[in-house]
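Run log, item B.
One chain of 201 residues. Sequence copied directly from the ordering sheet:
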Amino acid sequence: MVCFCNIPLSQISRHIDKYGHYGIGMSYDWVKKRGLNPVLYLRPGSILSTHVQKIFLHLLQQGHDRRTDEATAALMDILRYIKAYRGNFYRNGKLIKKNVKYYDERELRYVPNPAQVAGLYYLSEEKYNDPIERNQANSKLEKLKLRFEPSDINYIIIDNEGEISEMVNVLNNIKRPKYMPKTVEILTTKIITCRQILKDF
């Protein structure tokens, strides 16, 4: 999956603190065109959370196989769009912050259709940590990259003004033969810094 947030720049300061000072702001038309969907936030112990758990356990106990049973396959797909309303925030296995309200992120996800990846829904932690298993899974996703064009970009977010010239140089180095100089010139006007966002929005 690939995750995005749908947060107005005026409300992004906490997100910057948590995830860093760099990003790309995409147009909402691109979001819709690519089939991204908001996640379903669940509170542990809520009625909806309990129902989802009961359905999952029922199908599991009945011995349904996601490869042959449509209902089980549909539920497995739905589970990939579920996220905890609140939870601890980890990065690289380390606890960064407790009791984060994930709901504030307004997360959108791109999750490939399972039919396109031979029913690959997820990898266990053990398989993910095995480079051979991980590479085999990644090869199934190779054709399903989430593509975009320069015209789909609304913002290129960098940390501070001192990095602007470096970013302009990076953009200029990708223009030929893939993009026309005018396309790259327009992209350079979309550079914005975290300092600008925190000060002006």
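Observations after the first pass:
- The chain has nine helices and ten strands.
- Strands lie at 2-5, 23-26, 37-38, 40-42, 82-84, 86-91, 94-101, 107-110, 153-158, 191-193.
Flagged for discussion on Thursday.
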